[in-house]
Amino acid sequence: MLKNFAKDPRPSRRRFLQGSAAAAAGLTVGFRWNGGMPKFASAAYAADGTLAANAFVRIGTDNTVTVLSKHLEMGQGVYTGLATIVAEELDADWAQIRVESAPADASLYNNLQFGPVQGTGGSSSIANSYDQLRKAGATARAMLVEAAAKDWVVDRAGITVEKGVVSHATSGRSATFGDLAGKAAGLPVPVDVTLKDPGRFTLIGTSVPRVDAKSKTDGTAQFALDVRLPGMLTAVVARPPVFGARVKSVDAAPAKAVKGVVEVVQVPSGVAVVATNFWAAAKGREALNVQWDDAGAETRGTAEIMSEYKALAEKPGMPVRSQGDTAKALAGAAKTITAAFEFPYLAHAPMEPLDCVVRLDGDRCEIWAGDQFQTIDQGNAAAASGLKPDQVRIHTLMAGGSFGRRANTVSDYIVEAIHVAKALDRGTPVKLVWTREDDIRGGRYRPMYYHTLTAGLDVQGRPVAWQHRIVGQSIIGGTPFESVMVKDGVDGTSVEGAANLPYDIPNLAVDLHTTKVGVPVLWWRAVGSTHTAYSTEVFIDEVAHAAGKDPVEFRRALLSHHPRHKAVLELAAEKAGWGTKLPEGKARGVAVHESFSTFVAQVAEITMQPDGSVKVDRVVCAVDCGRAINPDVIRAQMEGGIGFGLGGVLYGEVTLDKGEVLQSNFHDYRVLRIEEMPKVEVHIVPSTEAPTGVGEPGVPPIGPAVANAVFAATGRRVRSLPFTRDQSV
Amino acid sequence: MAVSFVLNGEPVSLDVDPEMPLLWAVREFAGLTGTKFGCGAAQCGACTVHLEGQPVRSCSTPVSSVEGQSVTTIEGISGKAAAAVQAAWQRIEVPQCGYCQSGQIMSAVALLEQTPKPTDDDINSAMSGNICRCATYVRIRSAIHAAATTMEG
Ligand code: FES
Ligand code: FES
């Protein structure tokens, strides 16, 4: 499938420019990335005075600067971050910046870390866009300067740009971007532009206000659920009670009798009830009578699956990393420590359940969604509707969270809506809504895993061997990414965070059993690190304890080759007052972990409650994400990551009995609530390294930090998640 | 059957299934989409509106039960507490994805209207029913305190 995407006919630059010209009068800078190098258009394009200097920035005669975001805004602040990079190089005034979602067009808007695919994920948005958008901003700026130089008949060298105003001191002339946009639009797009010396940054590194803060406090922010089109119908789908079952028979009559129900449609995933409004559709679904065929369905329960995983863990799996001779070193160790960890399935449960609007009209398919994987969704929508990918137009709205759920390789919710739309009159828009129950029971979970770890210490208490085995389903296996992302039978996402353990231990082995289970799985905010950070960081604490060493000191001594891990660890420990005395009943725990090239250490301070549960009072977080684009957004992502991760380890679990999911809504799939949220202090390591992402890396360390604090308080190790299930807490 | 009530100060009459939750009547029949659907089961607070000034979960309130009463949604809030809350929300940059925030704000405004100087415990009890999956809780708390301070001055 990836190959097909690569072959997609490139939508013409002309079409893009026409679209942008219609949207505003004013300059767009247009270049295309081929193998990482931009090819600039030979001439700029003038249309009603808008400067469309490239695919990412448009300057209107009304003096607005519109940045086109190729990434989905789902809360992580990417609109603000991307616009900051453009505005910095453009020397724009922050107040004149607007952000719009870019159209789905991989030839212009592919994620440079995803090859030919437009999409958002892997905390890659800022990392992959940084150079690209600096150049986009600098190009537009160069064109404005050139236009001013020509207009004023002065030397470019004497022109300065500051806060959206272009000036020439000697002649005393000045103009706004809006004044110059039309003139700049007629100029050739420069091939080479000089980027700013980062020492002169005025926006990057400051916390400019989020561009979406206002619309998200007055109810005007638009999500897919809010789309209203003339004649639009709403669909809900009855899906089978066990994964892999199919419709055997349907009695649609009782559903059709519900006022407002228009149509009952059998789709590959189940039976859709289509109505003039949501409530009628939901009532119709309740009235439906569907018989399911369970042949080939997954009918095991999670307890059963976990026992199979435990049996598998007795035997070696596929080698992932091997250095030294771990077996020999363990045999010769003065002391060995061993532990096993259990991780449940987890639902993403984004606040906005899955939803989208689809309109099929002859050779056109239009989709409105909080779309996270535009190119994949175009391909799957095309296949489902019998069209070509470039006939699929996606309007990307903001998403009410995702945590990975909206980026799935089969485009489940979009394809489902297309199948419904196919059964309706041509051109009828249909909104597909998943309820919370559909979301919790609908699969694509963080996989269940079982880990075993064994470590050996020498007589001085130094770790000499580390053996780590992981058992669980592959997220990537069976998807179009398999050929690129599964190497030698190992799905990198199953072992990330374990395979690259940073600790300096001479004999180290990691292996993997990939299991086949009929429960659909998916990446969940921080992916592999959601379980590997837990097992490795709790276990290293156990090893430190067995060696009689302080947990921070023990880690530090093993991180001499990983200075960035070490630096965040030291910073978090220092700011948390590691080693100072705490009042009775309180304790601290620490964890450090790198994910998506961002380094995070957290110290959790807890109080054990009389009922044996744990209250997390305070978390001190140190983060190194390279150059900080917007420190306040980074802080927000660390706070949010900590709350999201904490809810996951304390309460999160999806369990199955005879193949049926037992949870259904927030009363039994508990998530963190305000009274459970700790105080959070975030410290950002000053850095001039390339910027990396912050959407996910705040999540992994919180679980092990809290577990290690529980150990410090009680001497008990939580090795089976969630905490509410573990007998020891 | 038409249900009549006052929505954001204007009388409305909606011809809907009387069992229909107020949430869907407001969103799909009155066209006000600021109020969100998160769980449909009074578990998450995304659908919070004010009924006669009190916060209620509109997903679990049949529209017929509000006949003759006054309903306020995020689009219609006004007054000292509302202004202070919305300003604090923006200044402190509470929202991430933003999807829960209409409900958070409706609960926070109702809290401050009754308890102008809430303690952390007051905030916990008033806001516990509002889930934020982005976990913006630290900022929700500080924005409520900040709004309370603004209201004093
Ligand atoms: S949607 Fe009403 S409480 Fe969740
Ligand atoms: S801001 Fe995303 S759910 Fe609250």
Could you characterize what this model shows?
The complex is a heterodimer of chains A (729) and B (153). Helix content of chain A is 29%, strand content 25%. With 729 residues, chain A is α+β, with helices and mostly antiparallel strands. Chain A folds into three domains: 199 residues, Aldehyde oxidase/xanthine dehydrogenase, molybdopterin binding domain (Aldehyde Oxidoreductase, domain 4), CATH 3.30.365; 151 residues, 2-Layer Sandwich (Aldehyde Oxidoreductase, domain 4); 304 residues, Aldehyde oxidase/xanthine dehydrogenase, molybdopterin binding domain (Aldehyde Oxidoreductase, domain 4, 2-Layer Sandwich). In chain A, the strands form nine sheets. Chain A has a seven-stranded mixed β-sheet with strand order 13-14-11-21-18-19-20, sandwiched between helices. In chain A, α3 packs parallel to α5, α11 packs parallel to α12 and α16 runs parallel beside α20. Chain A is globular, with a radius of gyration of 27 Å. With 153 residues, chain B is of the alpha+beta class. In chain B, β1 and β2 form a beta hairpin. In chain B, α2 packs across α5. The termini of chain B are far apart. The chains are: A alpha+beta (729), B alpha+beta (153). At the A-B interface, α8 and α19 of A face α1, α2, α3, α4 and α5 of B. One FE2/S2 (inorganic) cluster sits at the interface of chains B and A.
Overall domain count of chain B: 2
The largest β sheet of chain B comes out as: 5 strands, mixed
Q: Which ligands does the model contain, each kind named once?
A: FE2/S2 (inorganic) cluster
Q: Just name the CATH architecture of the largest domain in chain A.
A: 2-Layer Sandwich
InterPro entries (chain B): 2Fe-2S-bd, 2Fe-2S-bd_dom_sf, 2Fe-2S_ferredoxin-like_sf, 2Fe-2S_ferredoxin-type, 2Fe2S_fd_BS, Beta-grasp_dom_sf, Diverse_Oxidoreductases
Protein name (chain B): Oxidoreductase subunit alpha
GO molecular function (chain B): 2 iron, 2 sulfur cluster binding; metal ion binding; oxidoreductase activity
Pfam families (chain B): Fer2 (PF00111), Fer2_2 (PF01799)
